């Protein structure tokens, strides 16, 4: 497999090094732009292991319930031609994971299949003491319509890649939930390729783990692709949750929308969101927008937010980005408490409202409710929350 070599630092994301061989990527120092927000020491040996790495721990196990007609989940070897056809690593750990996995999980939805129920699978970690590697390939056949829920639970130190091929005219709703145990570490690269007139709704939920770094990239194979990427994350004391995205518009008349929201509570809670959208010269008629909003619920928390647009053509339908980070809205809290709503309930209402739009996009009521309960439980813990504004007695609407 080929490597794109660069003799000088890349001017755009399209010129960045891509390779399946970890040896092509320099050792990480933490000074690289792509890694400057990531605490490398907390990635354990994932940040220092080189070529020829092998798993030293138990691989995570898949839990797969009964599957609807038209859907299969199988294990395939490295020789399967589909593996690597969507995703070429463009960072060191993604290349490490590609070189070290032994077998891959293939989730397939047949052409024109329309399962009535969501496909729900779960990856359960085998322990955080040693390193594991993984690879998943998701293929959605032409004109198929499916909802897939992919959950991550348990403990793990995991580097993995996920390739998602969405066929022409297909519609995919993908919900990924990282609800790891508190000691888990994960570095994941998730890559979409959309066929002609394909439509994807991706909701990425990050709640658990010690350090979770997820890189999502999007490629359009033909005209008419439509990608909506939403993210919801809640970091508590000491957690590091990092999301990076690259939406690569390289063909005409495609659309993308990226909307991520995060809340942070507790000392040294840290979130990172970096959103890159590249509109190449040939991608006329592109319509794109990205926005990230962060809500700081306590002192000692930090949110880094970096939206980027690279536009190489003036013939676009629309392109924009926005980012906002702020503290708990005392005015909203005051308004609710002045109307007799207790403090704890008022806080929950404000944060629930902040996340309501994203939770509503999850099409499985049980999962929607469970994630809402997790968020409310974290608020109930109340670590380091700011004091509420004073409410004068007798206040009225």
From TrEMBL:
The record's listing under Pfam families reads: SUFBD_core
Domain SUF system FeS cluster assembly SufBD core: where? 127-354
| Record-linked InterPro entries | Fe-S_cluster_assembly_SufBD (IPR055346), SUF_FeS_clus_asmbl_SufBD_core (IPR000825), SUF_FeS_clus_asmbl_SufBD_sf (IPR037284), SUF_FeS_clus_asmbl_SufD (IPR011542)
This protein is called Fe-S cluster assembly protein SufD
Among SUPFAM superfamilies, the record links this protein to: Stabilizer of iron transporter SufD (SSF101960)
- Family statement: Belongs to the iron-sulfur cluster assembly SufBD family.
């Amino acid at each position: 497999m080929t490597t794109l070599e660069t003799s000088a630092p890349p001017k755009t994301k399209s010129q960045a090094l891509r390779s399946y061989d970890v040896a092509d990527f320099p050792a990480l120092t933490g000074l690289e732009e792509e890694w400057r927000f990531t605490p490398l020491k907390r990635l354990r040996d994932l940040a220092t292991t080189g070529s020829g790495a092998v798993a030293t721990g138990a691989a995570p196990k898949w839990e797969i319930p009964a599957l609807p007609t038209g859907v299969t989940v199988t294990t395939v070897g490295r020789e399967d031609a589909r593996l690597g056809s969507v995703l070429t690593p463009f960072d060191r750990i993604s290349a490490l994971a590609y070189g070290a996995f032994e077998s891959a999980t293939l989730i397939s939805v047949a052409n024109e299949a329309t399962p009535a129920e969501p496909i729900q699978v779960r990856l359960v970690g085998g322990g955080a003491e040693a390193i594991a590697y993984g690879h998943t390939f998701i293929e959605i056949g032409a004109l198929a319509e499916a909802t897939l829920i992919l959950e991550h639970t348990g403990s793990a130190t995991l580097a993995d890649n996920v390739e998602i091929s969405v066929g022409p005219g297909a519609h995919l709703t993908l919900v990924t939930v990282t609800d790891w145990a508190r000691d888990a570490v994960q570095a994941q690269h998730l890559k979409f390729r959309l066929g002609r007139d394909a439509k994807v709704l991706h909701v990425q939920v990050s709640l658990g783990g010690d350090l979770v770094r997820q890189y999502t990239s999007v490629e359009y194979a033909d005209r008419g692709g439509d990608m909506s990427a939403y993210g919801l994350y809640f970091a508590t004391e000491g957690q590091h949750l990092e999301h990076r995205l690259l939406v690569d518009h390289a063909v005409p008349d495609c659309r993308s929308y990226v909307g991520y929201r995060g809340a942070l509570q507790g000392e040294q809670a840290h979130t990172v969101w970096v959103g890159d959208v590249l509109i190449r010269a040939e991608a006329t008629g592109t319509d794109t927008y990205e926005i990230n909003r962060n809500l700081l619920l306590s002192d000692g928390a930090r949110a880094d937010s970096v939206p980027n647009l690279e536009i190489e053509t003036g013939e676009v339908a629309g392109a924009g980005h926005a980012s906002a980070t702020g503290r708990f809205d005392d005015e909203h809290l005051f308004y609710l408490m002045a109307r007799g709503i207790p403090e704890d309930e008022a806080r929950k209402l404000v944060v629930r409202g902040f996340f309501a739009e994203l939770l509503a996009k999850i099409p499985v009521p049980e999962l929607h409710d469970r994630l809402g309960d997790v968020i409310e439980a974290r608020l109930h813990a109340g670590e380091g929350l700011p004091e509420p504004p004073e409410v004068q007695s007798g206040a009225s609407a």
